[in-house]
Amino acid sequence: MLSTVFGFGFSVADCVRSPDLFRVDLTVLERGQQWKRWKEFFDAEQQETKQGVAGGKAKPKLSNDLTNEQSAVVPTFVKDIAEKTKTSERTIQHEVQIATRIPEKVQTIIKDLPVADNKSDLLKLSRLIER
After folding, report:
1. What is the average pLDDT value for the chain, to the nearest integer?
2. Does residue 64 register a pLDDT over 60?
3. Cα–chain-centroid distance for residue 13?
4. Is the pLDDT confidence value at 122 over 50?
5. How far, in Å, CA of 116 to CA of 119, rounded?
6. Taking the CB of residue 69, how many other CB atoms lie within 10 A of it?
7. Cα–Cα separations (whole angstroms), residue 31 to 41, 87, 128
8. Confidence (pLDDT) at 4
9. What is the largest CA-CA distance in the chain?
10. pTM for this structure?
C-alpha cells in the first residue's frame, strides 16, 4: 500500500497535517503543482485500497459507477484535502486545473514571471490551452 511516501514512513495525510508545509510562500503555479502531486499520491492510494479490499480481483470501477452509498465512503481528493488544509474546495480545483492543463514546458517558462502568482491569468491560460 502507498501508505509511506518515498520510504520515510509517513502518509499523504501526515503531510497535510504538517504545519511546516504551509509556512513557505508559494506562487499560485507552485501550489498547483504541489496539489497535483498530492492528487497523484491520493489517487494511487485510493486505487490500491480498492484493489486490496477485493484481493485485486474486482473490476476497477470508475467514479461514475459508484453507488450513492459507495461514493459517500470514498472521499474525493478535493474534499479530503480541503477539510484537512482549511482551504476551499474551489481553490484546490482551480490550482490543480492550472497545474494539469498548462504544459510543463510553459510552466517552466513562466515560473519566474509575475503571471506565476496571478491566479486569474493562469486560469485563463489553462482554459485557452485546453481548447
Report:
1. 75
2. no
3. 12
4. yes
5. 8
6. 7
7. 15, 12, 20
8. 43
9. 50
10. 0.65
